[in-house]
Every structure is written in C-alpha cells, then in structure tokens.
Design brief:
By secondary structure, the chain is mainly α. The protein is built from 9 helices and no strands. Helix 6 runs antiparallel to helix 7. The radius of gyration is 66 Å and the shape is rod-shaped.
Length: 447
C-alpha cells in the first residue's frame, strides 16, 4: 500500500459540494505523488465548485419576487374579470335608479387589487428574506473557504514539500554513489585494456616467430629419408637379380635331370641309381619350390615396400603442403582477428568516451537544475520564515498535525436565526398559499 498525504476529515460531511472538493483534491494529490503541489490549482478547484453552487443559488434568488409579480397580475386580472361591464352597469342604474351594481363592481376590483398588493408584499418580503439569508450564508461560506485554504497552506503543503525535498536528497545521494561506482568501473576497465594490449603484443611476437620459422630443415630431413629409401631399393634390385640367377640354375638342373632320366630309362640295370637320382631330383624340386616361394614372397615384399614408400612420400608431401597451407591460413586468420579486435577496441573506446562525455554532460545539467531548484527552495524557505512571524498563534496547531494530514475540518456553528430561517420561509409560503386560497374562495363567493 502506498502512503499519500491526503485530506481526511474526521467529522461526517453532509455537503455534497464539499465532498466533491475533497475528492478532487485527493485525486490530484494521488496522481501528482512525489511532485510539488500547486496551491493555485487547489484554490481553483475550490473556487470552481463554489462558483457553480453560487450561480445556481443566485439564479433562484429573485424567484419570490417573480411569484409576487405574478400574484399581482393575477389579482388585477381576477378583479377585472369579476367586475361587471360599464355598459351593463349603466343600463342597470337607469332601470333601478341605484348605484349598487357600480359599487359591487368597484368592490370586486378592489378585492383583486388587495390580492395583487398582498402577493407583491409577500414576494418582496420573501425576496428580502432570501437575500438576507443568502448574504449570511455567503459570508459563512467565505469564512469556511478562507479556513480551508489556510489549512491547505499551513498543514498540507509543508508535508508535500517535505516529501519532495526528501526525493531530491535521495536523487543527490544516488548521483554520488553512481559517480563512485563509475570511477571504480572506469579504473577496472583501464586495467582490462592494459591486459588486452599485453596479450595483443604477445600475439604479435608469436606471429613474428611463426613467420621466422624455416621449413628448409623439414625438407632436408625428408630428402635424407628419400635417399635412404633409394639405397634400399638398389639393394633390393640386386637381391632380385640374385633370385633370377637362382631360377636359371634351377632350370638347368631340371634339364639335367630330364637328360638323366632319359639315360636312366635306357639303363634298366641302374634302378638303384635311378631311384637315388629320383630322390635327389625330388629334393631338388622341393628346394626349387622353396626358392620360388621365397622369390614370390620377396616380390610381394618388394611391391609392398614400393607401395609403402610411395604412400609415405605422397603423405609426406601432402602433410607438408597441408602444414604450409594451415600455417598460412592460421597466420591470415590471426591477422584478421587481430585487426578486428583492434578495430572493435577502438570503436568500443570511442563509444565509451562519448558515453562518458554524455553522462557527465547530463550530470552537469542535472546538477545545474538541482542548484536552481535548491535556490528556489531557499527563497521559499526564507518566505516561509517571514510568514511564520505573522502566524505565531498557529504554532501549537501545526505541531499537533499528523503526517498523514488527517485533520479535522471545523465549521462555525449556525446561529439560532440561521436554524429558524427555513421555518420562517416555510411559514411565509404556507401563509401565502392560505391567503391565495382564501381570496380565490371569496372571489367565487364560496365563503
């Protein structure tokens, strides 16, 4: 629940106009919470509501006079209507020889004139009474209005101005804390910028070392390995030549075996020799098969070694190219990132400087405005001090005022004449109606 400084009379208010005034002022105070209340606006609210009621009353103030004039006209008209015509009275007078008809007509006219005069007198009397009562009420209203406006000036406005001064003090404290925090943050940011500059310098050193790297050593090592592989290939070729010579030797041995078989076939007597030769040939065949198998394995190993060497050379070249491309790409990316970081830092530093300049300018303007408001407040305080000299008799009442401005609004007591005035008016109205009724009954000869 928010706390407002509102007007809350303790006495029960019977006036609808005063209730409207209190509600309008409270609504204004609620909607303008935290600002300085305008006394002229509050006074205008009171004046407009009172002027509205005053116009309504002043428009009906001359109503009894108009009713009296209407009664006068009606009395005269009624007297003339019931008065016989002059020609008829003249003929009746000639016939009867008397003036009774003339006298009766004059009496009717006089009765109508009496009614008219009584109505005029009653209208004037009621108008005078209304005017006197109106002036007395107007005097009481002006007195109550002055009391109410004094209450607003003395009791309500100081409470509202006190809340405004508190809000200005709070704003000043917030600005002081903001300046402290901003100075600390700026110092921390300067430290961060120094760290960023040192890291950028280290990155530049790394880039320079990368640029100074010599890839010739790596190429030299790869060349030496290729030379060793070439020497191994030459030795493998010699081993292949040796294997090819062994295969030719095996072929010649086979040819010899065949020739021996042909000779041994002719020599049946040499079965044992043939058997031995067969065994030797089988052994030689097995040895030749073993040699051929070894030769095939050597060929396979040679092919595998060639494939491995080719793959190794291709992979080495690819890795060298990739390493070179990656180093160049990383170097370019690092240069781009360093340029972007440098640009972003420069833009951020520019934005920060502009923002700090704008903040300091705004703070300067706010402090200027605060100085202006403080000077006006000092002038108002000096004016209040001068006013306090003339209001020394109200100090005890001001000390007893509550912060919530719940003050009892006292109205002057009504006099006995003001209390009895409605009864007098009612009696005169009743008397006027009775007299009008009696006159009408007498005119129609009912009584």
């Amino acid at each position: 629940m928010e706390n407002y400084s509102l007007i809350n009379p303790k006495t029960k208010i019977k006036s609808a106009t005063f209730t409207k005034i209190i509600d309008s002022i409270n609504a204004y105070l609620k909607k303008n919470k935290g600002t300085v209340a305008d006394y002229e606006l509050l006074k205008d609210i009171v004046d407009r509501n009172l002027d509205k009621e005053d116009d309504k009353i002043s428009g009906n103030l001359a109503l009894p006079l108009y009713l009296g004039l209407m009664g006068t006209m009606l009395g005269v008209v009624i007297g003339l209507m019931f008065m016989p015509e002059l020609q008829e009275m003249d003929t009746n007078a000639q016939v009867s020889g008397s003036n009774n008809n003339i006298l009766s007509g004059v009496n009717e006219l006089l009765n109508g004139v009496k009614i008219a005069m009584i109505a005029s007198a009653l209208g004037l009397l009621l108008t005078i009474i209304n005017t006197v009562y109106y002036f007395n009420v107007r005097k009481a209203v002006e007195e109550n209005k002055n009391n109410f406006l004094n209450f607003i000036q003395v009791n309500l406005l100081p409470v509202l101005n006190q809340s405004t001064a508190n809000s200005l003090t709070l704003l000043q404290n917030n600005l002081v804390t903001f300046n402290k925090d901003f100075s600390e943050n700026s110092q921390k940011f300067s430290k961060v910028l120094t760290h960023i500059n040192s890291s950028s310098e280290n990155n530049l050193k790394i880039i320079k070392t990368i640029e100074q790297l010599d890839l010739s050593n790596l190429v030299k090592y790869n060349k030496e390995t290729m030379d060793h592989f070439n020497k191994a290939f030459k030795k493998l070729e010699k081993f292949g030549d040796y294997l090819s010579q062994s295969t030719s030797f095996l072929e010649e041995a086979r040819k010899l075996n065949n020739s021996l078989r042909e000779n041994l076939i002719n020599l049946e007597s040499y079965h044992n020799l043939i058997d031995n030769l067969d065994k030797s040939t089988s052994v030689l065949n097995e040895a030749g098969q073993v040699i051929t198998i070894q030769y095939k394995e050597v060929d396979q190993r040679k092919n595998q070694i060639n494939a491995v060497i080719a793959d190794y050379t291709a992979d080495t070249e690819n890795q060298i190219q990739k390493l070179k491309a990656e180093n160049e790409e990383k170097l370019n990316l690092f240069k781009q990132e360093h340029a972007e970081i440098h640009d972003s830092l420069e833009s951020f530093y520019d934005k920060l400087t502009n923002y700090t300049h704008s903040i300091f300018e705004e703070e300067g303007n706010t402090f200027k405005n605060l100085n202006g408001t403080l000077t006006t407040l000092n002038s108002n305080i000096s004016n209040l001090k001068t006013i306090e000299k003339g209001l020394s008799d109200l100090k005890e009442e001001i000390r007893n005022i509550k912060p919530s401005a719940e003050v009892e609004v006292k109205f002057p007591k009504k006099t006995k004449l003001e209390k009895l005035m409605p009864y007098f008016i009612l009696g005169f109205i009743v008397l006027f109606l009775i007299l009008s009724t009696l006159m009408l009954l007498r005119v129609y000869n009912i009584i």
